[in-house]
Amino acid sequence: SCTMLLSEAEVQSARGAWEKIYVDAEDNGTAVLVRMFTEHPDTKSYFTHFKGMDSAEEMKESDQVRGHGKKVFSAINDMVQHLDNSEAFLGIVTPLGKKHATQLKIDPKNFRIICDIILQLMEEKFGGDCKASFEKVTNEICTHLNNIYKEEGW
Known about the structure:
Layout lengths: L7 H15 L2 H15 L16 H6 L1 H19 L4 H18 L5 H18 L1 H24 L3
């Protein structure tokens, strides 16, 4: 499973789409998490320090939410930079997947949720083409993460 499914052109357009949202990594990362916690409140249970926060406003202001939002975006950014190098891509995805599966025990369905929210945000801010360019990337990320979870016995 070491070949990437994206053509050179798809890689370029995905990077262009990602750059638009990554420019404001902290704000956009925060917006994605706040939407996830608001629309899927069960996802908050994994973050002990977010549990008491109920209002979206409170979450938006939280340094911890902002910090994690930025972290999520930085991880995706690393993957996007290596879309044309499957070994390097897997070198980023694999330890991330293992950590979430074994230490953090995060349900893998949450990766799809977060990717879908990123796609929604892209569409709202930059239109359908932007979203379409990035859709394959989120599918790759989620597929690889799910495979890692299977290897870890989920």
